[in-house]
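Re: beginner question about structure tokens

> Can someone show what the tokenized structure looks like for a real chain? I only ever see the sequence side.

Sure, here's an example I had lying around. Input first:
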Amino acid sequence: WKDDDAIVCEGTNKMMETIEALAAAPGAATTTNREGNTCLHVAKTPEIVRVLLEAGGSNPRRIKNADGKTAYEVQTPEIRDVINQFVLFCGRFDIASLTAPSAKACWRSK
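And the corresponding structure tokens:
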């Protein structure tokens, strides 16, 4: 069984490396498909959502797809929790969460 677990783990690591490389391409994390979905609309795991948000993915509460739904609205509660770690909603304004990687970098540089 250990060999099977190693193969699954290696495949998962390679998949995440591929997703990270694709997300790092200019504009890739904010591109929409024909239905108006961003990568964040269709991401299926919290790990993928983290990678997309770290790569500068579109604001999950702003861009609506053809059905009028934001990525935040169509996602599972588990993925919404990840989104909440990166973006806080404050009335009419979205601001970066202080726990987001980009905010940590800003605080360290001061």
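Each token stands for a local structural state, so reading them left to right follows the chain. Residues 2-24 form the longest helix (23 residues).
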